[in-house]
Write a structure and sequence with these properties.
globular; alpha/beta; Rossmann fold
Length: 264
């Protein structure tokens, strides 16, 4: 009997439910991996239930989420590959830096270090009905129009409305405040020796530009993690993990894992 496939853990970001990964889990299982997509702390597997119990998300920070996923990973029989999107990509990078993952993929990662993700910052500056502050609500919601403008810029109105209905959930304000104030550190304790490989897949600017500009989310890994620069998904929208582009992105990741000898 052959060796079981490596575990793969998918981590989503804010305002999207865990169901964005359902096709990904099926695809990676078909490729021979042991794939799973855990919920965030306080999240239910069903988006309607999460929306109805949004108070369960109050107070959740990125550090809380990191510990939550570390606990989930600790139950596995070997360190997994972690694949994250947006704020989930920041968590994936941190799990890799902390040595609990063997490799990581950061799909369109949120920025860290006094900078909000560009789409959220634009929404905050241009939409007077969207905002957050330490003294405001502890839960940040989005309308379908705000979801469209933040995540589905390459989609039609009907497509964005469909994605909103299927995937949208409210979010805790804490992760937004953390990245805006540099309150979330990608590396708590430097890893002993080189960390495993990191595949970076941005949609807003090439990987080499992120490195050249010393983006805080990348600079922390410069000396310890190999940042791949061989592929970019420029201009196709932040919704690339749950829109019609998802399989193209998955193909690149599957090929990269094969190239790195990480299938088994």
């Amino acid at each position: 009997m052959g060796r079981p496939g490596r575990p793969v853990v998918f981590i989503h970001g804010l305002w999207k439910g865990v169901s964005i990964w359902s096709r990904w889990v099926d695809r990676f299982i078909a490729e021979g991996y042991r794939a799973e997509a855990p919920t965030w702390p306080g999240e239910r597997t069903d988006v309607e239930e999460t929306r109805s119990h949004s108070k369960d998300l109050e107070g959740i920070s990125l550090d809380d989420a990191v510990r939550h996923f570390e606990d989930r990973i600790a139950a596995l029989d070997e360190p997994p590959i972690v694949v994250g999107h947006s704020f989930g990509a920041l968590i994936a990078e941190r799990l890799l830096a902390d040595g609990v993952a063997i490799a990581a993929v950061a799909i369109d990662p949120a920025q860290s270090g006094n900078a909000l993700p560009g789409s959220i910052e634009r929404l905050r500056l241009t939409d007077p009905d969207f905002g957050f502050d330490p003294l405001g609500s502890s839960i940040v919601t989005m309308t379908v129009e705000q979801f469209h403008n933040a995540f589905c810029t390459a989609a039609s109105d009907d497509e964005a409305a469909s994605y909103y209905e299927r995937f949208y959930i409210p979010a805790s304000v804490n992760p937004l405040l953390e990245v805006a104030s540099d309150g979330f550190r990608l590396i708590r304790t430097p890893p002993e020796g080189p960390a495993g490989p990191l595949l970076l897949l941005p949609t807003n600017r090439p990987s080499k530009d992120l490195i050249a500009l010393e983006d805080p989310s990348i600079l922390a890994f410069r000396d310890s993690i190999s940042v791949e620069q061989n592929f970019e998904f420029l201009g196709i929208g932040h919704s690339l993990v749950f829109d019609e582009n998802w399989e193209q992105v998955a193909n690149v990741i599957v090929d990269w894992l094969e190239e790195k000898g990480l299938r088994n």
